[in-house]
C-alpha cells in the first residue's frame, strides 16, 4: 500500500487505530534528512542517545550454528544494557580476535550475521534504529574470503590515483555486500620515522602525494555519495601527526608546531574531506601536551569551523580512556569522557568510556545538547545511507561477488605497479626464461609475510608467494628452493643447503626483509597492538606495536646474503618489508635490488612478472630510504637551510623520495610555463628513448626562493604516471594554482605572497631534476 492509501485507510479507522497507523516522521523517507534526524533525537532518552555514540567490539556478537549465524546472547545483553548504535570489526578474524578459518565467517555467513544483527535492532529496540557496522579495510576488507591488496605504502608506490580509485571501489563493494557500512582507512599519517611500527599502513612522507591518492581512494569508496548501494563511510586515520612519535614509539607524543601541522600534516586530511570523507579517527598521541582525543583546536576549530566538516569523529580504540590512563590528564573516566565529547569527539570506539556521560549530565558536568550534536552527526549518516529503508543485504550476492576474478586481477595490477626497481647493474634484469634459478630467503615462500598487518586468515591457495610466481614462469626442474634462514629466529637456519642450491643455479633470487604477520604465540594489548617480548620469537618485526631501534635485517639474513654473494652467481635481492629497512649492503653488492613492500595476495605473481620482463617496473618511492637511523628524519622536503655531511656518512638518503628505475629510458624536453588567470600551466615533452614499452612517473617540484616564513628546500606539487611505447613521446601538462603557491605566514594564515620568486623543477625523482625554470 502506498503512503496515500495508508492515510486513506487510517482516516476511516477508529481514533486508537488511527494513532497506530500514523508513521513517525523519522521513518518517512520522503521527509528531509534534517527533519528526520531532529524528530528522532526528540524521541530518544539520554541513554538511547549515548548508546548511538558507542561502538563496541563486534566479533563476539554472533554465534555460528553450522552454516547458520545467529546473534549471540552477549549482543542481546549489550543492546539491552547500552542501546548501542555501532559495532566495530564484527567480521574481523586474526590471532587477536581468536577468529580463524574454522570459527570465523565467510562472506555469505558475514552477510547473514549482518542481517541478523539488523533484524534484532529493528524488532527488539524501542525506536528500531539500524546499527552501523564499521570494518577495517586499509588494503582490503579485513575479513575471511576477501581480496587482499598491497598495504598502504605499496599503494602509494604506484603513484597512480586512477588505479587506487578502482581498488577502493572493489573494497567498498566487498564491505557493503557483507553488510558493513564504515570502512576504516585510508591511513593518512605522514611517515617521517621508519622506526615507527605502522609505516606500512601509510602513504609515505609527502602531503601532496598522500592527499591526491587519498582523494582518489575516497572517491572510489563512494564516501561522497552514501545513497549508492556500494558506498562506504570512509574513516580517515589518524588525526593527526601520529606517524612522527618521539623515539619512534607508537602512540608517543608528537613534537610539532602549528605551522608544520598546517603545512604538512593537515592537508592530506583536508583533501580527503573535500573528496567526500565523512568520518575521522582521532590519534592516540598528544600534540603540545594535549591528547588528540580531547583537542578542541583540532576536532572543532580546524575540522568543523575552518573546514566545514559535516561527518562524525571517532576515538581510536581505548583512546578516551587513555586521556586518563596514558596521558594522565583526567582523574577518572567520566572526566575523560566529558573532555572528549566537549572537544568534538563524537563516537567511542570500544564503547566503554562514553556510558559515563549519562551520570555526567545528571551531575551537571556536561550539557545534554553536546550529546545531541554528536548523535545528530551519526544519525544523519544513517539516514543518508538509507539504512532505515534498506537495512538488509543478500547473502548469495556476497558469496558470488566477493573476491571475483576481476578483483584478483586488480590486486595483481596494484602489486605490479607498486614494485620499485632500485638497482639493475649491467641490465641483469629482466631474466631470460631458459635459465636455472635458486630461490632462497625467509620471505620467498611465506604466505603471511606477503600480506602485512590488518589481514585476515587466508584459505589454502589464496595467496601466491614469490616462489610460486617464479615457478609459474619456468619448468619445475629449473627452480630450486631453500629457505636459508628465518626473519628473526637465529636457530632456524640451513645456509649450507642454500649455498648448494645457489652453486647449481645460473641466478640466485634472495627474498629477505621483514614481516607483520601476527600469530597465536604473540601477546596483544587491549587495543589490538602486538606486544614485543624477548620470550616469543616470531617473524613479526613490523606492524602495529612493533617499533624498531635499528633498521637492520634481523636474524641470520645478512649472513645468508653474504654467503650467497661469495658463490659468484648473479644475485638478485628482493625486499618484502613494512618499512624502509637497511639496504646499504644490497645496494653495493646485489646485481639487482627490488623493493616490493607487502605486495598482497598476488604479490608473488607480480614480482615474477617484473623479474622476467612480463611487466616493466615503474614504482617510485613514497618515502626516503635512510642510510642509517642516525639520519632520521630524512624526508626530502625539510626546511632550509640545506643539510651538511655527517662525520661518518653523507647527509643524503640511500634512496630519495620519488626514486625508481625502469627497463627503458626517458628524456624530458621543451619546458614551457604560461600564466593564466589565477594559475600557471606547466608543460613539457616526455619521450621513451629505450627499446621497450614502459611507464615514467613525471614529478613537478617547487621551491619558493623568498618568503616571510622558512620554506621547504623543495616540495612536490604534482605528478603523472605516463605509459609510453618505445620511441613514443607525450606532451605532459600540469596546472599550478595560486593556492599551491601559497604559504602559511607568521599569523598562521594561508596566503599568496605576490612578490615571491618560484623555481619550477621537473624530474624523475626528488634528487633527479631534468628541467628548471623560474617564475
Automatic annotation (TrEMBL):
<dbReference type="InterPro" id="IPR026891">
    <property type="entry name" value="Fn3-like"/>
</dbReference>
<dbReference type="InterPro" id="IPR002772">
    <property type="entry name" value="Glyco_hydro_3_C"/>
</dbReference>
<dbReference type="InterPro" id="IPR051915">
    <property type="entry name" value="Cellulose_Degrad_GH3"/>
</dbReference>
<dbReference type="InterPro" id="IPR036881">
    <property type="entry name" value="Glyco_hydro_3_C_sf"/>
</dbReference>
<dbReference type="Pfam" id="PF14310">
    <property type="entry name" value="Fn3-like"/>
</dbReference>
<comment type="similarity">
    <text>Belongs to the glycosyl hydrolase 3 family.</text>
</comment>
<keyword id="KW-0378">Hydrolase</keyword>
<keyword id="KW-0326">Glycosidase</keyword>
<keyword id="KW-0732">Signal</keyword>
<dbReference type="InterPro" id="IPR017853">
    <property type="entry name" value="GH"/>
</dbReference>
<dbReference type="InterPro" id="IPR001764">
    <property type="entry name" value="Glyco_hydro_3_N"/>
</dbReference>
<dbReference type="InterPro" id="IPR013783">
    <property type="entry name" value="Ig-like_fold"/>
</dbReference>
<dbReference type="InterPro" id="IPR036962">
    <property type="entry name" value="Glyco_hydro_3_N_sf"/>
</dbReference>
<dbReference type="InterPro" id="IPR019800">
    <property type="entry name" value="Glyco_hydro_3_AS"/>
</dbReference>
<feature type="domain" description="Fibronectin type III-like">
    <location>
        <begin position="696"/>
        <end position="766"/>
    </location>
</feature>
<dbReference type="Pfam" id="PF01915">
    <property type="entry name" value="Glyco_hydro_3_C"/>
</dbReference>
<protein>
    <submittedName>
        <fullName>Beta-glucosidase</fullName>
    </submittedName>
</protein>
<feature type="signal peptide">
    <location>
        <begin position="1"/>
        <end position="21"/>
    </location>
</feature>
<dbReference type="Pfam" id="PF00933">
    <property type="entry name" value="Glyco_hydro_3"/>
</dbReference>
Amino acid at each position: 500500500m502506498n503512503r496515500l492509501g495508508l492515510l486513506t485507510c487510517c482516516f476511516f479507522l477508529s481514533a486508537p487505530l488511527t494513532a497506530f497507523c500514523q508513521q513517525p516522521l523519522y521513518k518517512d523517507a520522503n521527509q528531509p534528512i534534517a527533519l528526520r534526524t531532529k524528530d528522532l533525537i526528540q524521541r530518544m532518552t539520554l541513554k538511547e542517545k549515548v548508546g548511538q555514540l558507542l561502538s563496541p567490539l563486534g566479533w563476539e556478537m554472533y554465534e555460528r550454528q553450522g552454516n547458520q549465524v545467529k546473534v549471540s546472547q552477549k549482543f542481546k545483553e549489550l543492546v539491552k544494557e547500552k542501546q548501542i548504535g555501532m559495532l566495530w570489526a564484527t567480521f574481523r578474524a586474526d590471532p587477536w580476535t581468536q577468529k580463524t578459518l574454522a570459527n570465523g565467517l565467510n562472506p555469505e555467513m558475514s552477510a547473514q550475521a549482518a542481517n541478523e544483527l539488523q533484524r534484532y535492532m529493528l524488532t527488539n529496540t524501542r525506536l528500531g534504529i539500524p546499527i552501523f557496522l564499521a570494518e577495517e579495510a586499509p588494503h582490503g576488507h579485513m575479513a575471511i574470503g576477501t581480496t587482499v591488496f598491497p598495504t598502504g605504502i605499496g599503494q602509494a608506490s604506484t603513484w597512480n590515483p586512477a588505479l587506487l580509485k578502482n581498488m577502493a571501489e572493489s573494497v567498498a563493494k566487498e564491505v557493503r555486500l557483507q553488510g558493513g557500512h564504515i570502512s576504516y582507512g585510508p591511513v593518512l599519517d605522514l611517515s617521517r620515522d621508519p622506526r615507527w611500527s605502522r609505516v606500512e599502513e601509510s602513504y609515505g612522507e609527502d602531503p601532496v602525494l598522500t592527499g591526491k591518492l587519498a582523494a582518489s581512494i575516497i572517491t572510489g569508496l563512494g564516501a561522497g555519495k552514501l545513497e549508492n548501494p556500494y558506498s562506504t563511510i570512509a574513516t580517515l586515520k589518524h588525526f593527526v601527526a601520529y606517524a612522527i612519535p618521539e623515539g619512534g614509539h607508537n602512540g608517543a607524543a608528537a613534537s610539532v608546531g602549528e605551522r608544520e601541522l598546517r603545512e604538512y600534516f593537515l592537508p592530506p586530511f583536508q583533501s580527503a574531506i573535500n573528496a567526500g570523507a565523512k568520518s575521522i579517527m582521532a590519534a592516540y598521541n598528544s600534540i603540545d601536551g594535549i591528547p588528540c582525543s580531547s583537542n578542541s583546536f583540532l576536532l572543532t576549530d580546524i575540522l568543523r569551523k575552518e573546514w566545514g566538516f559535516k561527518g562524525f569523529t571517532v576515538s581510536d580504540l581505548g583512546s578516551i580512556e587513555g586521556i586518563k590512563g596514558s596521558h594522565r590528564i583526567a582523574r577518572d573516566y567520566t572526566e575523560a569522557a566529558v573532555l572528549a565529547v566537549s572537544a568534538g569527539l563524537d563516537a567511542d570506539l570500544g564503547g566503554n568510556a562514553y556510558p559515563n556521560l549519562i551520570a555526567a549530565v545528571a551531575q551537571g558536568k556536561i550539557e545534554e545538547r553536546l550529546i545531541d550534536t554528536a548523535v545528530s552527526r551519526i544519525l544523519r549518516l544513517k539516514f543518508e545511507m538509507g539504512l532505515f529503508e534498506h537495512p538488509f543485504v543478500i547473502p548469495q550476492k556476497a558469496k558470488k561477488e566477493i573476491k571475483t576474478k576481476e578483483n584478483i586481477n586488480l590486486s595483481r595490477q596494484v602489486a605490479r605497479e607498486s614494485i620499485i626497481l632500485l638497482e639493475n647493474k649491467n641490465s641483469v634484469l629482466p631474466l631470460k626464461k631458459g635459465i636455472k634459478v635458486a630461490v632462497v630467503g625467509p620471505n620467498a615462500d611465506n604466505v603471511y609475510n606477503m600480506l602485512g598487518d590488518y589481514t585476515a586468515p587466508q584459505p589454502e591457495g589464496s595467496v601466491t608467494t614469490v616462489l610460486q610466481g617464479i615457478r609459474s614462469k619456468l619448468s619445475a626442474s629449473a627452480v630450486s628452493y631453500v629457505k636459508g634462514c628465518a626473519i628473526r629466529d637465529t636457530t632456524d637456519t640451513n645456509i649450507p643447503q642454500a649455498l648448494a642450491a645457489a652453486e647449481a643455479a645460473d641466478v640466485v633470487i634472495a627474498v629477505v626483509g621483514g614481516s607483520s604477520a601476527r600469530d597465536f604465540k604473540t601477546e596483544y594489548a587491549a587495543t589490538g597492538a602486538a606486544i614485543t617480548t624477548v620470550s616469543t620469537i616470531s617473524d613479526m618485526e613490523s606492524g602495529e606495536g612493533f617499533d624498531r631501534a635499528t633498521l637492520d635485517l634481523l636474524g641470520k639474513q645478512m649472513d645468508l646474503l653474504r654467503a650467497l654473494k661469495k658463490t659468484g652467481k648473479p644475485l638478485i635481492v628482493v625486499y618484502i618489508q613494512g618499512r624502509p629497512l637497511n639496504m646499504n649492503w644490497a645496494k653495493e653488492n646485489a646485481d639487482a635490488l627490488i623493493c616490493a613492500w607487502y605486495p598482497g595476495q598476488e604479490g608473488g605473481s607480480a614480482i615474477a612478472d617484473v623479474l622476467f620482463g612480463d611487466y616493466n617496473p615503474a614504482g617510485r618511492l613514497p618515502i626516503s630510504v635512510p642510510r642509517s637511523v642516525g639520519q632520521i628524519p630524512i624526508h626530502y622536503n625539510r626546511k632550509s637551510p640545506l643539510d651538511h655531511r655527517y662525520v661518518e656518512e653523507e647527509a643524503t638518503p640511500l634512496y630519495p623520495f620519488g626514486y625508481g628505475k625502469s627497463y627503458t629510458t626517458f628524456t624530458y624536453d621543451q619546458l614551457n610555463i604560461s600564466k593564466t588567470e589565477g594559475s600557471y600551466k606547466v608543460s613539457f615533452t616526455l619521450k621513451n628513448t629505450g627499446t621497450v614499452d614502459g611507464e615514467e612517473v613525471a614529478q613537478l617540484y617547487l621551491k619558493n626562493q623568498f618568503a616571510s616564513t622558512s620554506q621547504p628546500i623543495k616540495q612536490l606539487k604534482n605528478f603523472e604516471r605516463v605509459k609510453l611505447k618505445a620511441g613514443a613521446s607525450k606532451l605532459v601538462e600540469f596546472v599550478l594554482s595560486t593556492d599551491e603557491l601559497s604559504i602559511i605566514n607568521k599569523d598562521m594564515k594561508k596566503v599568496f605572497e605576490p612578490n615571491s620568486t618560484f623555481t619550477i623543477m621537473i624530474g624523475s625523482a626528488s634528487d633527479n631534476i631534468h628541467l628548471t625554470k623560474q617564475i
